[in-house]
Design goal:
Blueprint: H1 12-21, E1 26-29, E2 32-35, H2 41-58, E3 63-67, E4 71-73, E5 79-81, E6 85-89, E7 101-102, E8 105-111, H3 117-121, H4 123-128, E9 136-140, E10 146-152, E11 158-164, E12 169-172, E13 177-180, H5 181-184
Parallel strand pairs: 4-7, 8-9
Antiparallel strand pairs: 1-2, 1-5, 3-6, 4-5, 6-8, 9-10, 10-11, 12-13
């Protein structure tokens, strides 16, 4: 005889109530709440480099780069997450008056981790791509100089390109920024 347990599903409001009082960060994915794991030195270095490069390039412009602590909500409300780097342009739009859940990202960057890589490339990517304001989604490997760049075309379709090697450059056309991979991976120990 086997016993089955029903998993408790949370609403977005229940998640936000729990998350705002928590000492650690969690993400909300279609009714489930998942604790976020810690990251590696490489992951944090890439995130800091990417955020810093964008901050410098966007200075004095209408766009702003944020790193890791601002939640983003998908249009359906099925995903509340903490992207590694987020760029929004124009006035920030928020989920509610607390101003801690952004709803109008233009660019989202995720640094891949072994435990989340499949999700970041698959379901999470599709959920992010449902956000009307999102024009570019970037996945950055932490174990080799490899960047996957998804860009929304004028017809709404997404085009993916892969950049490999420290000599490559990532062009984020929606925010008019070019980032050389050797700068994204500066101070990151890569295998030979």
């Amino acid at each position: 005889m086997s016993l089955s347990r029903e998993r408790r599903q949370f609403t977005p409001d229940e998640y936000l109530s729990v998350e705002r009082a928590a000492a650690t960060k969690s993400e909300f994915i279609e009714g489930d709440i998942f604790a976020m794991a810690g990251s590696s030195l490489e992951h944090d270095t890439i995130t800091a480099n990417f955020g810093g490069l964008l901050h410098a390039r966007l200075r004095g412009r209408d766009c702003q780069a944020l790193t890791g602590n601002m939640k983003v909500r998908t249009r359906s409300g099925g995903l509340f997450s903490y992207p590694d780097v987020t760029v929004f342009c124009g006035p920030a739009r928020f989920h509610d008056p607390r101003r801690d859940v952004l709803t109008n990202p233009r660019v989202i960057v995720e640094v891949l981790s072994p435990s989340t890589e499949d999700f970041d490339r698959g379901k999470k990517r599709l959920m992010y791509q449902s956000i009307d304001s999102l024009t570019e989604y970037v996945l950055v490997a932490q174990d080799e100089p490899l960047v996957e760049h998804w860009a929304r075309r004028d017809d709404g379709q997404w085009l993916v390109s892969t950049l490999r090697g420290l000599e490559a450059e990532l062009v984020l056309s929606s925010i008019d920024c070019t980032l050389p991979l050797h700068e994204i991976y500066e101070r990151v120990s890569l295998p030979p």
